[in-house]
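Work Package 3 (structural annotation) set out to generate three-dimensional models for the target panel prioritized at the project kickoff. During this period the team completed the workflow that converts sequence records into discrete structure tokens, so that structures can be stored uniformly alongside our sequence database. As a representative example, we reproduce one entry of 206 residues exactly as it appears in the project archive.
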Amino acid sequence: MNVREAINPAYNAPSAPADTKLKIGRLEVKFDAAASTRSRSLYANGRMQVKVLVIISGLDEQANEVALPDEILNTVKLIHYNGSQPLANDERPLVHVGQILSRSWASSKQENNFVHEIPGAFARMTVEPKDTEVSLPHVLTFWVSTTRADSTQIAAEVTMDGEVIRSNRTGNFGDRDSSVTLIGKLPVTYPMSDFLVKRHKGLLNT
């Protein structure tokens, strides 16, 4: 099963007339997994990523589900459920300051080439590539990483006509409540005593 089937069977999105007053219909935060999966773990090394999906759609004046324009979709961001602070933007290369990474919880729209999530912890679902026709709801993908060995609850926010709508029961229309939890774990390290180095005769004399 793919994410779109799990959320709602996709259909071609109707376009609202240009002068239609839109509002946000759905604003949900999920993993690419069964709906019962509400938390995931990752190593706090700044490189391991967890895929987080934001499910969003618009409503027209007759409460019909309609597509949202790009200028609204581009305002969608992940936030901390408690406090509403946005996750750091992770669209730049990883920067080290000594042995300390320069960010804690961060989100990106770009998938990196490192291992994603702690292996074997759960079964993943797939997201179908978008068709040329827009289908509803919109499914926006974010990749979250961390350098902190703690947990955080993640919600989403979107801005429309100057109003901020969040999924953490704050902001305009504060009855929305949708989030997932990420748990950062200390990376596995191995002391030098765990390694055995043997010298083989002849290798250094060739």
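Confidence is low (pLDDT under 50) at residues 1-11, 92-102, 126-133.
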